[in-house]
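SEQUENCE AND FOLD
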Amino acid sequence: MSRRARILLVDDRPENLIALDAILTPLNQILVPVQSGEEALQALLADELAVVLLDIVMPGMSGIETATRIKQNAKTRDVPIIFLTAAIAQPEQPFLGYAAGAVDYLAKPFDPGVLMAKVSIFVDLYLKASQLLDQAELLSERLEAVEEAVAALGRLPTVSRDAEAREVAARLAGRVGGLRDALGGLGPR
């Protein structure tokens, strides 16, 4: 079964959430609708998300404040945010949105095809990154088995008595260490 990404939909108006659901359902991903900034923060902490679609004008915590909090949290700071807003009468809104950490800003009414294309890009990036991390974890596990085998090889009496065999085992251990170092930036999530 292939992995599916979670897309967080944040809007205080149920009809907007229904519209977003209708637009994004063809992507065949997991849509997570919430109606407030507080609920959005809870959802982000509960599950890993590919992208957040966030309304700016909401009662209570605004979208700008929600985005700021998302970007301040180490666990959620890298989740891309696309603002969706009807607040086009306020020319400072796009600037505030980008300043809060948004990657994009769409004014309502927006073209559903454009929104779907933009979300699709972030879903694809998320899925590719997840696949790379999974492969890095598998490689790390296999590398650990090789490290154990190299260490066991070095402890063999015939290797410890033979200078050439010790040198070969040391070179092998060095190469495995180099692989481990290269893998270091791709380790477990």
Observations:
- The chain has two domains: 6-110, 132-186.
